[in-house]
Each structure stands twice: as structure tokens, then as C-alpha cells.
Amino acid sequence: MTFDVSQSAYRSLRGIVAERTNPVLAWVGSGLSIPAGLPSWAELRVILLDELLDKAKGLDGKDREQLEARVRQIRLEPNNWVAFSMLRDELGQATYRDTVRDAFAGAATAEIPDAYRKLWGLGVRGILNLNIDRLATRAWGAHKPGAQIGEYNGNEVRDIGQILSGRIPFVVNLHGSIESTRTWVFTRKELSALTRNDAYRTFIDVCLSTRTVLFLGLSVDDVAVGGHLRRLADAGIETGPHFWLTDRGDVETDQWAEEAGIRRIRYRSPGEDHSEVDEFFLDLETYVSPEPTTPLPPVALDGPTPPDGRLPAPEELERLDAESIRSTLNAHAKQLLLEEKDESYADYQRFAEEYEGAIYRAWYTSARPGSNKLLGYTLEADIARGAFGHVYRATDPDGKQVAVKVLLEEVRRDPGLLRTFRRGVHSMRILRGHDVSGMVAYLEASEIPAFVVMEWIDGPNLTQAREGNMIGGWEDLLKIGSELALIIRSAHILPERVLHRDIRPSNVMLSGFYGQPNEWEVVVLDFDLSWHRGAYEQSVLHTTSGGFLAPEQIRHVKDASTRNAAVDAFGIGMTLYYLCSGEEPLSGQHRNVGWEEQVRTACAKFSRTEWKSIPVRIARLILAATQDEQASRWDLAEIAGELTRLRAAAEDPGGVTATELLAEELAANCEGMQPYDWDPDRLCARHEQQTGLKIEIAADIKEQRVRLSVSWQRTGAEDRTNVGKYIVTASKAMDDQLKAGGWKTSRSVDRSSMHFEAALEADVLRGDIATVAERVDAATEGILRFNR
């Protein structure tokens, strides 16, 4: 069998996965757990019915007849939610509970089905799980042993920001887990209570409106799934794109999915053969997006179609002034391109070749009065220039100030440059059509000569702001970084998946900075309007170093693509490095041995901040965004989430609720923890000494606690005769000190080793991190002094 990769819905999903433009969540049902020998929902209903029938057989006379009639009634009930309500009532709480538990008794030891492993291998950020068997969580442990995962039951979802904005993958057991009967959702009453839960409903809404969801192993038209989509659709909330992998091929199913905003991806399963699902996963895992090969149309000025007039002969046209030549050439070009057909493009190419001399004359531009007209625009000042063009301050025919970017004449002689110019204009038109906020508004463009008209921005670009010391500190930097990441991400998640691919300080501006210095906004220029020329790349108007470009933009890299959101992640990472250091990165600098130290030093020296862990976390973000291997870089959702959380921490330290942030901030405030290393899988700050002492501060995101661990093991090299006695005394003092501060402690100590554990509620820590840090330092002072 061969899975049909030509399905348009599948190609769309494959593009999102390959290009990493939006995090993917999986919403899974019992179909994924059936290979483990566990019952589907329908099969569990049969098991409960059989149990109820056995119960009836144990009754006498009329009671037996009534219960058997009830069994027949339940068997005919078309709605599973109603049927389970009836089964629980008739069986009784104890029998119902134990029968369900017995049905899933093998879940803890069953072999994990491949589909769960493949989902994690695919890089999904989380699994919304309708099953109570917890196989999704076990699969994560098998995929990445020792790495922490956020696991929640549906009625426990609270800190939505921590779940979705953090970097830790998560499983939400929407209908509970086998261990806790109070979390089960099988009956209509239980489902109603769950969907009335504001936090749960908001969580589902955010997932569906900000992430791409892949539904599989379930009937998505069930009210527990489809009901959410229908509610959002009725409220006019845009969702998707979402996808449903199913073997159902009837028209009714397809219509329902379309109305709910889900695109159906079909696989065939004759005789319960699901091998096409394996092919589906394999293709998703290995596909690399190529650059589009379809030629983009030539660029003609927007506006009304010009009247069909006589086009003068080339030699006659060349005798006219430059503005008359431009008007005539563009009017004819517009006429040729009225219909977007291959024949039209061919006619345009012949026209461009025939009128080459006139086009050359048309290309000359100047801000000098008398020669400063450009198709109705008045060029007032040449404000910037680079290897491939000029930027003019200009006014439009109505007197409104605009920016005009005119590319040098060689653009039309280089097919690669001309193709990139057309691609950039195409991308900016898409963004304008979707009204994407945060991009400098594109107004119009032409390629005779090649120029783009954009709104005028009253403010500096980031290069000017950094060199002029206009950026005041971490709050400014985090505002710039978070807004930049969100703007780029908003372009990525469009159906057309628009990338920028030339993020650098000179392409990011602070709008309104000169007029309202405290209310400026970040805006971005030149989406997809760059070209790359090997290791000596120069973009449209910038001659700065190629250090802002990802390695795959400069040279061919196996299994990497320039059509990947990780390209923009690299640009954002290097832009943040520039803002911290004031130094433009060199091409390939991220591969130098000293790169990590350069980044950490730049962030540490940038400025002081009340939230002490910000410099360390930003350094870690820059390093993660600028990984040489494309697949290893953080994606834009992770970058945007981290910058947004850190911005909130800088602006309102007392409002931080994420346990992970609190744990690292405690480590950053503890003098005894310096320096520390951060383990992203375990969410743990670790300080180790050669003497065998190890101190860890970790986030327990499920229990909303911070955990402190102190351990020591005799190495045999100690030169102190009373070392064992001292360790016992020091551990006792540590225990007393932390208990007095509200920590719950436990310890195991003898004269050769010590292991100490303590936990503190995150809410307590948030109240006064500095005081808690002082207590931790006081508690560990003795053991640290001994180990120095």
C-alpha cells in the first residue's frame, strides 16, 4: 500500500511540519491505544454492559427482568455519553469503578504503540489525550528518558501560559487518568462539568486558535471534540489550520469536517491494515521543503488599468524624458499582465528585451529637483544606500510622506535577483491582504524600474537605536525582542506561511520613537525581499556582515532548507546578540569555540535587572536560536513565549507564576549556587564542586513546587578526620533552617554520604524570592564552607 501524499490537506500539514511555522499538537483517542490490547470506548461500553448483565443474572424474578430490560435499553442507546451515565447508575459506583480499572489493568505494562512514539519523534509540542491509560506519557519517557514532561488531567488545567508558552512538552489527559476516578469523564454529567470549567475551556480555545492540531485515533465529530470547534466557529473565532487523519471517506464526514474547520487527510485500511499510517509518519519525518519553483509574475503598479494606447517604437520612446518613458512602459506592462497567464508573462519578457534601452533610461532616479519624479512620487532625499539600491524619503501624489526603495538596474539583468524581488513583493502583498500588524505597510511596487513604496516610519532602526544609546535596558530589549518574534510568527502561521529570511537590526524599526518616545512600536521591513550570494551575501540594501544569516542561507546544508522558520529564528537570535553586545556578528561566528562565552559575557554586561536570571536566560535563548544545525534551533513559538514571559517578569516581577521561572530566579539569587548550569530537560539549576557536593534547585511544574536537593558522597580524598561528624551536624542545621522557612524536608545522612531534599510551594517563593534565597544561602553555608 502507498499513502497518498498528493492530498492537498496533507501537503499543507507537511509544509507546516517541515517548515516549523507553527507548533503542532496531537489530539488522540482510543484508536491509538488499541494495539496495546486496551479497549476502545465502544468496547469498554460492551464490557460494562456484560458486567451489568451478570449482575442481573444474580437477581431474582421481577428485579432480574427489570435490569435485563435496562441492559437492552442501554445497548440500543446511540449516545455513548448517555449510555455510560446509565451504566454507572445501574452498576453502582464500586462495580463501575472496578470494572473500568480492570479493563485498563494492563496499561502500565503494555507495550507502547508505535503511533505514540512517532508523535513525539515528529516533534509535537503536546498531546491532548482522550484516553485514561497514560500511554502518551509513558511514550515520552521512552522517547526521552529522564526528561521532564508536564502532565495534567483535564480538570487540573490552570496555568495555561506555563503549559503553552514554556518549552516543556505536555500531555493533558482531557478525560482523566486511570489512577484517579474523580478525574474520569465518561458520562454526560461529567462532560458537562468539564466543559463548564472556564480554565479548561480557555485552554482548549487557545490550543485551537494558536496551534495546529492533528486529530487521530478518534471520531472528531464527537461532541467532546467537535463541540469545541463548533462553539468557536459560532463565535466567529478563527482557528486552524487543523487536520484529521482518518480512514472515513463518506461525504457526510467530509462536510462535517469542513464546517468545523478541519481538513481531512484520508488513509486506507483494508482489513484493519493500517500500514499507510506508518507511511504517513515516515514521510512527515523525512520531508524537507524546497524553494518554490513556480515562476512569480512580473510586478506592475497597482491601480486602475491604463487605457489601451499606442506603444511608441523603442527608438522613439528613448527620446522622451525619464518620467514619460516610465509612465508609458508601466502602462503597457500593466496591459500585458491583466491576465495572469504563461502567455502574458512570455509577452512581457519579449517586451522587456525589445525595450531594453528605454528601460535603462527609465531606471535613473535622483532626489535632485527637476529630476526627482518617479511615477507620481516626488523623491525628496536619498537617506540610505547599499550594494543594490537606494532608499528615498518621498511624497506620494497626495502629499503624504512615504519611503521609496529603488533597486539598482542590475536587478533586471540577474534572473536570481529579479526572482527574489518578485518573491518579496508577492510576500508583502500577502501580508497586506491579511492585514498583518507590525509590518511596515507595503503600498505598491513596480519593476520598471524595480522599486517598492512603503509607509514612512518616524523612528530609528535598531542599528541607529543601539549606536545612539536609545535602548535603555532589559525592558526595552525584551519589548523589542518579544514584539519582533510575535510579528514574525504572525506571518509564519498564515495559510501562505510567509517567512522573512533577512532579519537584522537595519530591517527592524521603532515606529513613533521620535514623536512619542515612551509609546514606540516595533515594525519590520522587507519580508522575503533579500537575496543571498554565497558566503559574501549582501541583502537588498545592506552591506553589513552575513552574520545575521543562517548557515543554510549561505551554503548548501544537507537536510536543511531555506524554506524553514528556523532561518528566522537564527536572525532573531543574532539580532538579540547585537542589541546586547553592540557588535555585528560575523558570518560563521556562531561556530567559533568561544561563541558561548561571547554571548554570556555580552548578556551579563548589557545592564542590570531586578529579575536576575534574565541575562542568563537570554544568553541561553540566543545560543538555542543560533545553533548551527537547523533542526536544533528553538522554533518561533518557543522564542516568542520565552521573550514574552521574561518581558512580563522584567516589568512586574511580583506577577510571575511559572514555576520554572521562579525556580531559576531562586538559583540566580542564591550566592552559593553561582555559577550554575541549567538542565532544560529536568528544569533544574545545578551547582557542583569537585569535592562531590552537588546542589540542585528544580521546578516541579505538576505540583507547583520548587525542590532543593543537596547531596554529598565521601571521595576518600578528604584530609579532615572529623568529616563524617561535620556532615551530620551541617545537614541538621540545614534541616532546621529550611523548616523554619516553610520548606518540607527529608534527609538521609551518615558519616560517608548525605542526601537532603526540601520542597517549597511556588506561591510562597513568589512572595519574596530574595528572602527565600537568603535562607537557602544561610542553610547551605556550612556545607559549602566545608567543601571549598
What secondary-structure arrangement, pairings included, does this model have?
Blueprint: H1 8-19, E1 24-28, H2 41-57, H3 61-76, H4 80-91, H5 93-103, H6 114-122, E2 126-129, H7 135-143, E3 150-153, H8 160-165, E4 170-173, H9 188-195, H10 198-210, E5 212-216, H11 223-234, E6 242-246, H12 251-260, E7 262-266, H13 275-286, H14 314-317, H15 322-336, H16 342-354, H17 356-362, E8 373-374, E9 377-386, E10 389-395, E11 401-407, H18 415-433, E12 442-447, E13 450-455, H19 462-467, H20 474-492, E14 508-511, E15 521-524, H21 551-554, H22 565-581, H23 595-606, H24 614-625, H25 636-651, H26 659-669, E16 677-679, E17 684-688, E18 694-700, E19 705-713, H27 723-740, E20 744-749, E21 753-761, H28 762-767, H29 769-787
Parallel strand pairs: 1-2, 1-5, 2-4, 3-4, 5-6, 6-7
Antiparallel strand pairs: 8-9, 9-10, 10-11, 11-13, 12-13, 14-15, 16-17, 17-18, 18-19, 19-21, 20-21
Helix pairs in contact: 2-3, 2-4, 2-5, 3-4, 4-5, 6-7, 6-13, 15-17, 20-22, 20-25, 22-24, 23-24, 24-25, 26-29, 27-29
Structural description of this entry:
With 788 residues, the protein is α/β, with parallel strands linked by helices. The protein has 29 helices and 21 strands. The strands form four sheets. Strands 3-4-2-1-5-6-7 form a seven-stranded parallel sheet, sandwiched between helices. Strands 8-9-10-11-13-12 form a six-stranded antiparallel sheet. Strands 16-17-18-19-21-20 form a six-stranded antiparallel sheet. Helix 2 runs parallel beside helix 4 and helix 20 (474-492) packs antiparallel against helix 25. The chain is flat, with a radius of gyration of 32 Å. The protein starts with 7 loop residues before the first helix and ends with a helix. The relative contact order is 0.07. The model is unreliable at 531-543 (pLDDT under 50).
